[in-house]
Amino acid sequence: MKKWTTLAILAALPATAAVAAVPYGAMPSGFEAPHIRTSPIAGVVNQQWYNYKTDILEAEKELTSDLRRSTDREDRWDAWDEWETEVVDADKDYVKEMRKKGYRTGRVTVGG
């Protein structure tokens, strides 16, 4: 039941709400945030999309907690590194699952 409640809450959130919780102002200098999707692949809202959004929200929650407990610069970098890894992994998992269902991410190539 808890999972369905989470899904209902996520469905009601605007697409950009997932990125709002990350304290980008606290990001270390020189650190670049990974891309976080604001819309589903091919516009298909399905279980994989909700799983992706849940993974992102969990990574943000853990980041916030880790930053709150950090005592030095190294702790903060570790927290951001872990968050980045989790966001990238969530995206890879989401893309992989959508490919299995026959959906592909768009790619634009500009050449001369």
In summary, what is this structure?
Helix content is 59%, strand content 0%. It has 112 residues and is mainly α.
Secondary structure layout plus pairing:
Blueprint: H1 2-12, H2 17-20, H3 47-69, H4 73-100
Helix pairs in contact: 3-4
Question: Can you give a write-up of this model?
Answer:
This protein has helices spanning 2-12, 17-20, 47-69, 73-100. The protein is globular. The chain has a domain at 46-103. By secondary structure, it is mostly helical. It contains 4 helices and no strands.
List keywords for this structure.
4 helices; about 110 residues; about 60% helix; globular; mainly alpha; single chain
How many DSSP H or I helices?
4
- Separation of the first and last Cα atoms: 54 Å
Q: What gross morphology would you assign?
A: globular
Structural class: mainly alpha
Determine the mean pLDDT.
83
Rg from Cα = 16 Å
Beta-strand level of the residues, as a percent range? under 5%
Q: What fraction, in percent, of the residue positions are helical?
A: 55-70%
Major sheet: size, sense and barrel closure?
none
Stretches with pLDDT under 50, minimum 5 residues: 14-20
Protein name: Putative secreted protein
Signal peptide: 1-20
Organism: Sphingopyxis fribergensis
Keywords: Signal
